[in-house]
Amino acid sequence: MTLQFQPPPPDHVAPERMVEFDFFHIPPGVGDPAEIWHDLVRRGVPEIFYTPRNGGHWVFLDYADIVEAYRDYSIFSTYQTPVPPIEPFPVVQPQAVDPPAHNTFRRLLAPMFTPIAVRGMTDELRRRADQLIEPLAERGHCDFIGDFAERFPTGTFLYLFGLPESRLDEFLALANTFFRSTDPAARAGNITAIYAVLDQLFRDKQANPGDDIASAIVTARNEAGEPHDWTDVLNCGFLLFVAGLDTVTNTLAYIWRYLATTPAAQQHFRDQLDDPDAFLRAIEELMRINAVSNLFRRVTHDCEFRGVQLRRNDRVVLPNTVANRDPRVFADPQTIDLDRAVNVHVTFGVGPHRCVGSHLAKREVMVALQEWLRRIPPFELDPDQPAGSVFGGSVMGFTSLRLRWDRR
Ligand code: HEM
User: Fold this and answer.
1) What would the pLDDT profile of 45-81 be if each residue is shown by its tens digit?
2) Structure confidence at residue 408 (pLDDT)
């Protein structure tokens, strides 16, 4: 669609590639924020298009192009990418650093999140999930987001960073302002507050290291045998704080929303409780269909990509939800097939920045669902409670999800 009554497109953007699209705006009545992306595909907009909204940015819709943008950091950088632009933005470690410098913190984090390392966290994750679910079972209803989906990953962060559970409400409040506030003053104060908390935490761990990830980061040494730059340490702590909360919360929310409205799928998981392979395969499919993150890149130099002229500093948005339903890659992509055998989804990205926490995220979902199904009988959306609102942006999701079931 060519825009009228709007500033003209940047002169390197062909008019036929201009589409009016604001990925933060979810029109009234749309119950699933991901639908605004799938609607673009249904409308047949160009697979590479430019929108003037949110500071102006490209959107890629083809799986192959999205994967290429993830991989080719010589064109698509992760440095200073926010959409709409915020400059300067913290250079979070390692996500906002291109290879080869990216490797320093990537190599530091990767061993702490391997499948084996994550398996070792299972008992503690299970205990924490159980502690949250147990009191809900007797209640017969809950707001799944406030009562579980926010608390569980935030508690996991406390556990990873060697912090006491008594600080859960403090960290929930920090995370809530970070992810939901639209007030610029509150947001600025919140980032300052998060950095102050991390600064104190890392100083404490430096003085008294423990067997936790914060201690491992602050006591690590660079190739010269020196401690890492303090700003990088803080920026790494900041990334771990923000990367594993809203993503996990809303993935859980999407999955529970689907299960609440699909009794056969609930039963499928109940039937597989003692078959971890089948259980995980089904979770993998729910990860494909419920890809909550839209990632950003910045173009490093003027160039042509797939015949499209890109300009240095152009922003690009990569919607994983669209890639994951590309019919050129996935058979019958709109169908949720809990036994899908080949599943090359990009929910956790691909290439150098592929999610370091993916095994942890999947383990959190698996443990949460196992414990939930063991304690809660068949559940459904609560028709007596108002549906919460939905939001778009870099992570899509829901503000509340009211569920109910028969009390024990
Ligand atoms: C369902 C939950 C999650 C989703 C959907 C998700 C998604 C992603 C995606 C798409 C990326 C790639 C970023 C890019 O290419 O720019 C990423 C990177 C990252 N994620 Fe996750 N993530 C999840 C959970 C977690 C958790 C639990 C942690 C940590 C405890 C975590 C830590 C990270 C880190 C550190 C990176 C940066 C890796 C790098 O730059 O090398 N994520 N995540």
Assistant:
1) 999 999 999 999 999 999 999 999 999 999 999 999 9
2) 65
* 150 Cα: distance to centroid of ligand 1 (angstroms): 17
CATH number, domain 15-150+245-405: 1.10.630.10
User: How are beta strands 402-405 and 379-381 bridged, if at all?
Assistant: antiparallel
Nearest Cα residue to atom 27 of ligand 1: 244
For the four alpha carbons of 69, 73, 74 and 79, in that order, the dihedral sign comes to: positive
Distance 18 CA to ligand 1 centre (A): 30
Confidence of residue 3 (pLDDT cuts 50, 70, 90): very low
Measured from the CB, is residue 362 less than 6 Å from ligand 1? no
319 ligand 1 Cβ < 6 A:
no
Specify the pLDDT at position 181. Answer: 82
Mutate to test the pocket of ligand 1, among 355, 365, 366, 395 (most ligand atoms within 8 A of CB): 355
Name the token pair of 244: 């594993």
Residue 144 in this model has a pLDDT that exceeds 70: yes
